[in-house]
Design goal:
heterodimer; A: Uridine Diphospho-n-acetylenolpyruvylglucosamine Reductase, domain 3; Enolase-like, domain 1; five-stranded antiparallel beta sheet; three-stranded parallel beta sheet; 36% helix; globular; B: alpha+beta; Ubiquitin-like (UB roll); DNA polymerase, domain 1; binds flavin-adenine dinucleotide; binds FE2/S2 (inorganic) cluster
């Protein structure tokens, strides 16, 4: 057991014991330990590392890996979609402990921050005692609970270009609180850069983008000169349908593949109807 | 490993087993059985404590990582024979049946009222969404929190 005081200390410990388990909020790792699925031989706690708790916003937004979902609700990071995603995570007890870095490192297809990070084209900052690297989120996660993080690396921060207020996160679950997503969707319309991003959660082995739907929506925004507009019902339905075709869902205990496609189409249509009219500044 | 931390205002030290949760540490090593163990996966809230001022599930906290931290359990709320106003409100409203969930609800309610002394129904439901009760149907719990809010104020 090693309680890291600063980032260098954490990286040195991780370099010394590369198989060690990193402990942040513990909301994923402790469940594994409590149920005997994991018997860690070495644990490095990083929850006191102040550098990992920093959050800055200045054109680009940088959120330290140790920022909790409660902090994402309380502090200004400019992403209303990430705030909406944070609000749906677990319960107050879970949000007070669970971190964005833990969500990213766990890389569950149901991780609620992840569709937003995909839609924002966020970058994952990794550091080891060997040095640092930056990986686009879309290349970071490679499968269910699989990612490119090396055993001696820490996720230190997530960074993205501030995309403005036209963004939304939606999640369908079996009840309101404490629920793993049946399907999640994030839509970001960056009016300044002329960019549309869509991220889909719980709809495939990784977080999916929806390139056809993104191109379709970009066409609509282009026509409107990237100014706020009210899309037609038909356009929203078309957007939703394109999103549903991007999904690669499975049948599982939380829902069938067909139901997931259906809710994605519905959420997609609603997301576009909600985001397109949002003013340029919040 | 031996860890020392502040529990309900006093420094306590004991041996934490490998992988032991704070919940188990409080109950087994420090003989504080107020925090309950039902699910050990963060779903039920019966193990709720305040850790460095934040409401968390103690079953999801690694005891070994708590050296030097400060924990407040339900036991901190009343050290004498008189109940804390929140505890009294739960009793009076009939919000306690088997009582297993009660300590967790009391700790979570205390955390809520500390920041929001006059919560609306929706705010109470949100604040207590991490606590499960299989007996009361929650109606009486809502009443109790409103009554406690009036009492604490
Ligand atoms: C009751 C309950 C409800 C939940 N509800 C939701 C929900 O609604 N939505 C959702 O998305 N998730 C949910 N979760 C899952 C969990 O809370 C999240 O995935 C959370 O973001 C994990 O963060 P953590 O800091 O607690 O991670 P930890 O448990 O500390 O770590 C998780 C994993 O990531 C590794 N790790 C953590 N931080 C780093 C880092 N900086 N660098 C490298 N590796 C790291 C750890 O070694 C571990 O393998 C829930 C969990 C519980 C118990
Ligand atoms: S025992 Fe901790 S939440 Fe259920
Ligand atoms: S009173 Fe029995 S679980 Fe709540």
């Amino acid at each position: 057991m090693d309680v890291a005081r600063d980032l260098d200390g954490a990286l040195a410990s991780l370099a010394a014991v590369p198989g060690a388990d990193v402990l942040n909020g513990g909301t994923d790792l402790m469940v594994e330990i409590n149920f005997g699925r994991k018997r860690p031989t070495a644990v490095i706690a990083i929850d006191r590392v102040a550098e990992l708790r920093e959050l800055s916003k200045n054109g680009t937004v940088r959120v330290g890996a140790g920022v909790t979902f409660t902090m994402l609700l309380e502090r200004d990071h400019g992403s209303s979609a990430l705030r909406e995603a944070a609000r749906t995570v677990g319960s107050p007890q879970i949000r007070n402990a669970a971190t964005i870095g833990g969500n990213v490192a766990t890389s569950s297809p149901a991780g609620d921050a992840l569709p937003v990070l995909a839609a924002l084209d966020a970058m994952v900052h990794l550091r080891s005692s060997r040095g640092g690297r930056v990986v686009p989120f879309r290349a970071f996660m490679t499968g269910p609970k699989k990612n490119v993080r090396a055993a001696d690396e820490l996720v230190t921060a997530i960074e993205w270009n501030d995309a403005g207020p036209a963004q939304v996160f939606m999640k369908v679950g079996t009840r309101n609180a404490m629920v793993i997503a049946v399907a999640g969707l994030a839509l970001v319309a960056d009016r300044v850069r002329g960019r549309i991003g869509v991220g889909l959660g719980s709809c495939g082995p990784t977080i999916l983008r929806a390139p056809l739907a993104e191109a379709f929506a970009a066409g609509l925004f282009d026509e409107a000169g990237w100014r706020p507009f009210a899309p037609s019902t038909g356009a929203c339905a078309e957007f939703g349908a394109l999103i549903a075709t991007a999904a690669r869902p499975i049948d599982d205990v939380r829902g069938t593949a067909a139901y997931r496609r259906h809710v994605l189409a519905v959420m997609g249509a609603r997301a576009l109807a909600r985001v397109a009219p949002i003013e340029r500044t919040a | 490993m031996r860890i020392e931390l502040r529990v309900n205002g006093s420094m306590r030290a004991a041996e934490a087993r490998d992988g032991e949760s704070l919940l188990s540490f409080l109950r087994e090593e420090l003989a504080l059985p107020g925090s309950k163990n039902a699910c050990e996966q963060g779903e039920c809230g019966s193990c709720s404590v305040m850790l460095d001022g934040a409401l968390v599930c103690s079953c999801l906290v690694l005891a070994g990582a708590c050296a030097g931290k400060s924990v407040e359990t339900v036991e901190a709320l009343s050290t004498t024979e008189t109940l804390h106003p929140i505890q009294q409100a739960f009793l009076d409203a009939g919000a306690v049946q088997c009582g297993f969930c009660t300590p967790g609800f009391i700790v979570a309610t205390n955390a809520l009222l500390a920041t929001n002394p006059e919560p609306r129904d929706a705010e109470i439901r949100e604040a207590l969404s991490g606590n499960i009760c299989r007996c009361t149907g929650y109606g009486k719990i809502l009443e109790a929190v409103h009554a406690a809010a009036r009492g604490v104020r």
